[in-house]
Amino acid sequence: MATAVATLVTALPAHAASVAPVQDVSDVLHGVTVKDPYRYFENVKDPKVQSWLKEQGESARKELDRIELRNQLEQRIADISAATGDDIRDITRMPGNQVYYLKRARGEKQFKLVMRDSLQGPERVLVDPELDAKRTGVPHAINYFVPAWDGRHVAYGVSAGGSEDASLYILDTASGKNVGEPIPRVHEALLGWLPDSKSLTYNQLKALKPGDPDSETYLDSKVMWLKVGAPAAEAKAVFGPTVTTDLGLARLDVGAILFNPGSRWMVARTTDTTLPEGFLFVADVADLDKPAIAWKKISSFDDKITDAELKGNDLYLLTHDHAPRNRVLKLDLRHPDLKLAREVASAPPDAVLEKFSLTRDALIGEVREGTSIVLRRYAAGDTKGQNIPLPFKGAATVHNDPAHAYSDVLYTLNGWTELPRTLLLKGKLSSDPGLRVNPPMPGLPEVEVVDVKVTSHDGALVPMTLLYKKGLKRDGSNPTLLDGYAAYGFSQTAGFSPARMAWLERGGVLAFANVRGSGVYGDDWYRAGFKATKSNTWKDGVACAKYLIAEGYATPKTLGVMGTSAGGIFVGRTVTSAPELFAAAIFNVGIMDAVRAEDSANGITNISEFGSARNPKEFPALLEMSTYHNIKDNTAYPAVMLVHGMNDPRVDVWHSAKTAARLQAATSSGKPVLLRLDMQAGHGVGSTATQRYALSADIYSFLLWQMGKAKQAD
């Protein structure tokens, strides 16, 4: 039941561009009346909503541009970034010594797809999205790439304006020209090249019909099989809820098929795009040519398998079943009964086996120890594994060797205060293969990194990592930023950031909290901040804020808090639970209205993470975790800047719009509530370097302004 009455607010909130009309909508959900005064903002295409958003964005821009040190900060971030050299990511090593990766060269805006014929070979640019940006005036980005096993082709996706609405292209690597036509609605790298490299499978979303709700976007997707050079119309649907109807798939089961050049098998895997657990099925690659594929079920969601790798006749499985800190099983696909799988790798005590990779002759585990990730080698028969010494403390990421063609391992090591280094591991010795130019560390202050544990409301010890300039005085005067995420089991992880360094050298403190909902201690810690237990996420956040004040790092006049995306729940509910602790807060592309989120395109995929308002058992926790519904009138809230991109496909911009309007009307502090909008950005994926520098400068200058460390020009 819903009712709506239009009301106009007469008092103009401090710093608001203009008053947002209230339309009093109320829903009765499971006997609870839920008010929603700004629901009309969910119709983002409404001209009146567009006008208000534009006005808010322009007003925020003016306020931010008046902060005197804002431009200095942006320039400093750009300078530090330039001094760190080229940015390289998503390195993939293919048979025949070919190496592919995304590279954003020093001074350039966007990542290009490049390749080398060997680690020491010359670079060759394959795809440059800046050409599309110059042609259209809209930023373009490479969302993913997957090379064919023989290196003759590479499949890649490109989207515009941060939308992540990628189309699939196939490039002939010799000629540098695309083969065939672009294939729309292929958003993710759910691609698989067949062993002969002559065809591939990909997951394609359906085309929505006029009038279809956004929540239909990710339902009923299909895995298509296409031969290179054939028209897209000739692609054959081979897997999916509406294709393989006898497999018991749900409409939200999004599929991909795994292949390997040394294997006769293909493995179909599903997720709901949010939780990694799902179905696994196996069939013979030769079955693709048959009218119907004889898929054999290996596992379902309840088997708690979160990753899979195929090698010959064996399927390697990462699972938290009977192992909250994870283990790896090996299953012989000639006898595809999960009960026959045997353990080949386990997590060491007090650590989490977070990921694994296969080499020609071993398994390499990425093992989480707090915010650091170390490497561990598991040889055949050694389930405990051996630690691999690393050059410095940080987070190691093993790069993709999908064919498992090499005995040595390419990985990148990144630290809080160390520039990322890409290294080649042979045995236990790491050396520089020359893939990345390692410039000297730019002139920056010496930074201390301190790990602490904070006692939360129920006695749980919450790990938090602090960064600050050496010699910092704990007199409460330091601008301090508490940052948390805590969803999907993702954890705060060590990594060098030029923007953070610009904050630290101005005397700032950074506090990264792995509150419950993260996976820092494995599945149990994650489940302790999940659905019905989600309140631990922000209660841990409040405890961390009180710790920073009690230990003299900050006071309520110099303490800020930030959360991004699903971290919007962390930051929003921390602020609305204890507004008196903070001078300012950053709600960055955050989930703000958890009750209504499931009616959006990506929101429906997050029901498995947060719950459904239609479920009477899950609704109370959703209402409690919804920042928008927990804002109270006449409350002295801290200054808030809400950040969003208009093309965000993951968290709709109306989350920030509704919350900004509600905060502007409710706050009694007189402090600003700004809605910073980027008309050519999305969730941050695909943003150019220029956009990233500008956003960081806006965030840090806003915080310094509200902490009394920066002034505005008249």
| Spatial shape | globular
Helix content: 10-25%
Mean pLDDT: 95
How would you write the strand order of the largest sheet?
32-33-35-34-36-37-38-39
Count of alpha and pi helical runs = 11
In whole angstroms, the N-to-C terminal distance is: 50 Å
Number of strands: 39
Radius of gyration, in angstroms, nearest whole number: 25 Å
Beta-strand portion reads 25-35%
Describe the structure.
There is one protein chain. The strands form 9 sheets. Strands 32-33-35-34-36-37-38-39 form an 8-stranded mixed beta sheet, with helices on both faces. It starts with a strand and ends in an 8-residue tail after the last helix. It is globular, with a radius of gyration of 25 Å. The protein is an alpha+beta fold and 714 residues long.
Sequence-ordered SSE layout with sheet pairings:
Layout: E1 2-7, E2 22-29, E3 32-36, H1 47-65, H2 70-83, E4 87-93, E5 99-104, E6 112-116, E7 124-127, H3 130-136, E8 140-147, E9 153-160, E10 167-172, E11 177-178, E12 191-193, E13 199-204, E14 222-227, E15 236-239, E16 254-258, E17 265-271, E18 280-284, E19 296-299, E20 305-311, E21 314-319, E22 327-332, E23 342-346, E24 352-358, E25 363-369, E26 372-378, E27 386-388, E28 395-398, E29 409-414, E30 421-426, E31 429-431, E32 447-455, E33 461-469, E34 480-484, H4 498-504, E35 509-513, H5 523-527, H6 535-550, E36 559-564, H7 567-577, E37 584-588, H8 607-610, H9 619-625, E38 639-645, H10 654-666, E39 673-678, H11 689-706
Parallel strand pairs: 34-35, 34-36, 36-37, 37-38, 38-39
Antiparallel strand pairs: 1-2, 2-3, 4-5, 5-6, 6-7, 8-9, 9-10, 10-11, 12-13, 13-14, 14-15, 16-17, 17-18, 18-19, 20-21, 21-22, 22-23, 24-25, 25-26, 26-27, 28-29, 29-30, 30-31, 32-33, 33-35
Helix pairs in contact: 2-4, 2-11, 6-7
Domain Peptidase S9A N-terminal: 22-392
Organism: Collimonas rhizosphaerae
Signal peptide: 1-16
